[in-house]
């Protein structure tokens, strides 16, 4: 674009600082980063099982339908964090809510710097 624009003379009058990098804040200590990262919320879910069905079968599901799942009765269920499997658990009742009792958990190396 070689054509001069009406704003070009105005731009020429601006005093630009010398070519030096902008000042940067000192990096935060690793401990603060680790503390902040540990506060990031994640979604923990307990997966009962799954079933593959055709669209035809899906279209026939009604309120009283039973869909068999791929998990055996009494088998520990899958614990997932944001969709990634991290272990196995059993369902328990805590007060008036469901909970989970962890029976197996993978090594949770979250890649976080040590606090």
From TrEMBL:
Membrane topology, as annotated: Peripheral membrane protein
InterPro entries referenced in this protein's UniProt entry, alphabetically: FliN-like_C, FliN/MopA/SpaO, FliN_T3SS_HrcQb, SpoA-like_sf
Coiled coil: none
Keyword Membrane in record: yes
Chain ranges of the Flagellar motor switch protein FliN-like C-terminal domain: 37-105
Biased composition regions of type Pro residues, renumbered to the chain: 19-29
Name of the protein this chain belongs to: Flagellar motor switch protein FliN
Species annotation: Rubrivivax gelatinosus (Rhodocyclus gelatinosus)
